[in-house]
Design brief:
Layout: H1 3-20, H2 27-77
Helix pairs in contact: 1-2
């Protein structure tokens, strides 16, 4: 799931809560709880995405090193 999907889902939950807040007992406290947890959820999603990107960069670097070694090996063999 991409970051845009997560932001869209959290935005949809926010607007649904905003619409139904007057009809839910304890709605204002629920909205405050959601607003308090929203930055934490976004932070966790960003950390996970950065971790995924760093692992992809690491694997690309390893593949590039292997290609360089292979290319140098063919030059040395000629």
């Amino acid at each position: 799931m991409g970051l845009a999907d997560v932001v869209a889902i959290l935005g949809a939950i926010f607007f649904i809560l905003l619409i139904f807040m007057p009809f839910i007992p304890g709605g204002p406290s629920l909205m405050l709880l959601f607003l308090g947890l929203l930055p934490l959820a976004l932070l966790v999603v960003l950390i996970v995405k950065i971790w995924e990107l760093s692992s992809e960069v690491r694997s690309i670097k390893e593949e590039l090193k292997a290609l360089r070694d292979e290319r140098e090996g063919t030059k040395d063999g000629e």
